[in-house]
Amino acid sequence: MIKQGRKKGTVRFVYTAENGATDVSVAGDFTAWEPVGMKKQRGGTYAVTLEVPPGSHEYRLVVDGLWMADPDHHNRAPNPFGSVNSVVEVT
Questions:
Q1: Distance (Å) of CA 81 to CA 10, 39, 85, 89
Q2: What is the pLDDT of residues 17-57, one digit of tens each?
Q3: Which domains does the chain possess?
Q4: Distance CA 52, CA 56 (A)
Q5: HSE value, Cβ hemisphere, 13 Å, CA-based, for 35
Q6: Are 47 and 40 in contact (CB under 8 A)?
Q7: β-pairing verdict for 2-4 and 66-68
Q8: pLDDT band at 86 (very low <50, low <70, confident <90, very high)
Q9: pTM of the shown model
Q10: How many CB atoms lie within 10 A of CB 61?
Q11: What gap in Å lies between CA 4 and CA 26, rounded to an integer?
């Protein structure tokens, strides 16, 4: 799940861990595709708030080493690896 942050240009990424995931990151064109760790929250979720410039940005979650589209965000675009990236629109 993603939410526009309270501060302009920030996005909060939230992932509800399934099957006991222990290491969750987000990576996207706004991080040069370098994974940024998400902090474990109550109830088995992980979250991080990042500064993201305005525009359309592609990203993926990295869950215990497995790259995947955000299952809670259905705006997606195909990538050159034969799968899809999630897309966030920042205003």
A1: 28, 28, 10, 22
A2: 878 899 999 999 999 999 999 999 988 899 999 999 999 99
A3: 2-90 (2.60.40.10)
A4: 10
A5: 15
A6: no
A7: unpaired
A8: very high
A9: 0.90
A10: 24
A11: 15
